[in-house]
Predict the structure.
Amino acid sequence: MKNPTAIILLHCPDQQGIITDVTKFITDNRGNIVYLDQYVDTIDRMLFMRIEWELEEFLIPRDKIKEYVDTLFSVRYQMNLNVFFSDVKPRMAVFVSKMSHCLYDLLARYKAGEWDIDIPCIISNHEDLRYVARQFDIPYYVWSINPDHSNKEEVETAEMELLEKEHVSFIVLARYMQVISNSMIEAYPHHIINIHHSFLPAFIGAKPYHQAYERGVKIIGATSHYVTAELDAGPIIEQDVVRITHKDIPESLVRKGRDLEKIVLSRAVSKHIERKILTYKNKTIIFS
Amino acid sequence: MKNPTAIILLHCPDQQGIITDVTKFITDNRGNIVYLDQYVDTIDRMLFMRIEWELEEFLIPRDKIKEYVDTLFSVRYQMNLNVFFSDVKPRMAVFVSKMSHCLYDLLARYKAGEWDIDIPCIISNHEDLRYVARQFDIPYYVWSINPDHSNKEEVETAEMELLEKEHVSFIVLARYMQVISNSMIEAYPHHIINIHHSFLPAFIGAKPYHQAYERGVKIIGATSHYVTAELDAGPIIEQDVVRITHKDIPESLVRKGRDLEKIVLSRAVSKHIERKILTYKNKTIIFS
Amino acid sequence: MKNPTAIILLHCPDQQGIITDVTKFITDNRGNIVYLDQYVDTIDRMLFMRIEWELEEFLIPRDKIKEYVDTLFSVRYQMNLNVFFSDVKPRMAVFVSKMSHCLYDLLARYKAGEWDIDIPCIISNHEDLRYVARQFDIPYYVWSINPDHSNKEEVETAEMELLEKEHVSFIVLARYMQVISNSMIEAYPHHIINIHHSFLPAFIGAKPYHQAYERGVKIIGATSHYVTAELDAGPIIEQDVVRITHKDIPESLVRKGRDLEKIVLSRAVSKHIERKILTYKNKTIIFS
Amino acid sequence: MKNPTAIILLHCPDQQGIITDVTKFITDNRGNIVYLDQYVDTIDRMLFMRIEWELEEFLIPRDKIKEYVDTLFSVRYQMNLNVFFSDVKPRMAVFVSKMSHCLYDLLARYKAGEWDIDIPCIISNHEDLRYVARQFDIPYYVWSINPDHSNKEEVETAEMELLEKEHVSFIVLARYMQVISNSMIEAYPHHIINIHHSFLPAFIGAKPYHQAYERGVKIIGATSHYVTAELDAGPIIEQDVVRITHKDIPESLVRKGRDLEKIVLSRAVSKHIERKILTYKNKTIIFS
């Protein structure tokens, strides 16, 4: 098995010496740095950094690392930082409605060991995809939402209890056709990944493929983003596109779009799992 | 030299027998068909067709062809059709402001013989690009537009007189930073090609690269379209995109976008010159 | 349920009147044409055509159609033609080795009803993916091949007996890591679809991602093609690419390539199932 | 005007402390670092780095910088390094034959001020493009090469005298249809940029578009690379592709390819001018 590593994701106002200080702290304490990437936003004068080191001979106990780096750097550099450990598996909940393509793509990667995560539950507002969950032996929970949304708050409360009980660390909306309410968004800030079936900010909202057909675009896209309070307006993680022609009708756009959606969603999930995404001012910094 | 050909672009409600009738008419009159492409819009039940044949041994004189096909087909099939001749060179006017990249790209293709057209004039609201026109020996006309647009109508009248005098058949806005007024649009319906520096319908209007930067998209685009009364809302001819990252600032987006713009504009101009574009319901059918 | 249709795929030396003759034959016999696309290879002077019509009121019984069109057209036009019926489900066999990503992608589409086919069997040279077959309730057959290939002929004989017994109409090699021998290729001419993990003809043969890494390319690709006697040299059906950088190592190329492979393979399978592929001179004509 | 900066491009075996040492050296001497990017090749354990700092208050005189960094770092870290200054304009020679598209694209960027370089000369084996050079007021030199190449050595000697006289720092082969001999390659190691009109390593050598047509690929590409002794085998700087179909004939591939070629070549030239390319083991590291 690979050596466990610690990962710090940080951002702070840029100034001389930060990289030197942080790397020196790690190497002085016998951490072997295996990854270092930084980016300076020259407009906002902000430094963004991801650093990863092997814990094996690191002198500071892992449960003290956060305390140390906070003490040493956070105040001094007005640093916003998080510490992760590579051997702590993220626990991912998947929300679905009726379409299986994104769900299958996520589960196939999970099952093939492409991602080192746990998937404790799949949550839906419909029974339709229970058979997929069963194929992969993952618990499937259904809460129907009334057409008038009268039970929506109640349903979300139940869902959040489940998420908490299952120690879910992030949520993937795999073509989940319900708007997430603010209380859930606030409980998982920048930890709910959605796939929107358009090249945002074009075609926000419902039926983007039909909108694309009506507008006569020559390229369609898909966008994965973190969910925020404003619909389809959260930080974009990944986008991709495919060329279409005048021969495409909404049905063929839906078909072509499915392949985009699953790729774009899975790329975002990969980056999230690898702790390679920083968010700042409603945008993402994606480390390579 | 290549044999001159006639080209018909038509659309009409789809019904059995149209293709047979049209091709039979041409071959019965000794026209050698060199191109035939058709497309049926199965939603609107419309047929779109482009047919091209050699005139050399064609029995009907070229100045009678339009009359014949109108008589034979237009009423019977409620057909909307146009006849073109390959040896009638389109005459293209280019409108520019201060940026040279699209202009250079158009003129380099023209000079290299890539397009069989004439460019009788370049029109601008600024003196800046006169040197480019001079390099290519093309008359360059400047009409400044007052900041309050008080002389805009007058300027457009003068421009349209020039366009008419020069027998201009279509107009290319090569990063021309002025809105075209309705009277000019109506004089050249679906014959004014614009390049918008975004992936429409995202980022309509001013400073799309800055809008893209603010939104944090991961891909930027460019869109060429026919100009209609509504800003940036005309039929899209061609689009293309390029991937960007969080490292891009508005300046680098402008730089990356320039290459997109010139390619996307030139592809649209090529298709227009080849008479391979049909417009219908604010969309384009692009024959291959 | 949709009305059953008949489909003709044909190619022949181009000459006037073929399209008229074929369409007239269908409409005269009360077939409602729902698809017509043709392409003329102007270099080889060949016509390629796909035509599809509803059988409901068609006057000629379906088991006589092939005979009629052969009599009427094949000799006269030196036509090479095939007749298919939309309600005859293709029967697809999948060959796999140890990697699950393409297999999952195929089966997820099958299960979701994206393709109207049957998958009677999955064949492998390893036990590894039996669990996937079991998840989807599809019989999984394993024939190990000795390292010295001493039993290869025997294995292929057994496989071909199974394929015949199961009335398999085409084979998909979903990252099957064995060369198919000529006897099987000849039994399924242009009916075995392979996915090669490079942008052919670059990096033919083994370990293309390692070859790509060594060469330092900036883009990698995947290619689906029909299998022919010469390795990786059959008619190309579909290709796609993804951009890489100097930071990519063979492992990350493998990871990025997986997504390409499954998309490119599935696009090829879709086109094959829809009977939209014609092969000619080791190339494919792909109807839209 | 922007402050002049110094740029170091270096690579060396990776070890702890290098980044710290180099950045400390610059900041200790009052250099304001404006760019830092590094990359560790984890397979070869090599560090690659680009660092750029403002010279205004830098304590070490610019003509001593190379000496200082050599003394301080080169031996100690087995470092291979180069120092550049942003206000030293690269001097680019362009070699052309008969096709104008790449030449126009280069000169349009130069004239528009996109690149801060000088172009002292255009060299050709044909008279054809003299008019382009004249349009841009750049000296144009022609040396015909005999069909039997009997005067090739003599011609190259004359060309190299011109290049030396004009203090040319790098050469761009803008569709120059002659093989460069080893003596010139050795005089400009990794300073001759070529554009090859295929997706290398596919279709090495002559007539790649015809090769692509024969093979029936679905995507064509273009590749810019540094010229080395082996034909079309030097370090790849940039590649891009465009989708084609069975309808494309060699002529349309040539046309589509032209746009690729000029974009791909210009991207490579931009990176070279910005000193953002390191070469190592016949590959390039391209800083962002």
Remarks:
- The interface with chain C takes residues 16-17, 19-20, 23-24, 27, 33-34, 36, 38, 40, 42, 243 of chain B (CB under 8 Å).
